[in-house]
Amino acid sequence: MIPARIEPCRDATGYRRVITFGTFDVLHVGHLHLLKRARQLGATLIVGVSSDALSFCKKGRRPIYDQQDRMRIVASLRCVDGVFIEEALERKRDYIREHRADLMVMGDDWLDRFNDCADLCDVRYLKRTPSISTTEIIEIIRHG
Ligand code: C2G
């Protein structure tokens, strides 16, 4: 994991450590909106970036950018305090514990999929940004 730049300090309304997960391949504004909103909910945002192997399992294709580059790009965002590799969807509970998260945020395309973690931290699903996805971007680049 790339260490957090800022030491967490809980404010009166927010969470201390927010965690989220994703492939973040060919980063676009949908990703950015999700990350910024997640960060606004807490003092620190930690992002689990899916490994190339996990990404292949989820999407059935190799990501355009490999995991190291996707990690570098996400880690360089001002709203992100730390990144690590997400090896498996089923390891959510381990990651929440390892990173001492008190809130997990996901887009609502994953609605209710991770409710079993609610005994470890709060779980919130944010509205997905409409009309944009990496898959669509790849299609447009391929076929115009
Ligand atoms: N997202 C969004 N709006 C979009 C596209 C994506 O809000 N138009 C959100 C997704 O809902 C997700 C995050 O951005 O919360 C990352 O999206 P992906 O890279 O597509 O992530 P995904 O492959 O769905 O991985 O453990 C769960 C996962 O690893 C999620």
| Share of residues in strands | 15-25%
Task: Count all strands and give the number.
Answer: 5
One letter per element, helices H and strands E, the order comes to: EHEHHEHEEH
Shape: globular
CATH class: Alpha Beta
The main sheet orders its strands as 3-2-1-4-5
Please, what is the CATH homologous superfamily?
HUPs
CATH topology: Rossmann fold
The CATH architecture designation is 3-Layer(aba) Sandwich
Low-pLDDT stretches: 4-10
Radius of gyration, in angstroms, nearest whole number: 15 Å
Domains, number: 1
Task: Explain how this protein is built.
Helix content is 32%, strand content 22%. The protein is α/β, with parallel strands linked by helices and 144 residues long. It has a single domain (14-143), classed as HUPs (Rossmann fold), CATH 3.40.50.620. Strands 3-2-1-4-5 form a 5-stranded parallel sheet. The longest helix has 12 residues, at 29-40. Residues 4-10 have low confidence and may be disordered. [cytidine-5'-phosphate] glycerylphosphoric acid ester binds at residues 21-24, 30-31, 34, 50, 58, 86, 89, 106-107, 109, 128-129, 132-133.
Q: Characteristics of this structure?
A:
alpha/beta; Rossmann fold; 5 helices; 32% helix; binds [cytidine-5'-phosphate] glycerylphosphoric acid ester
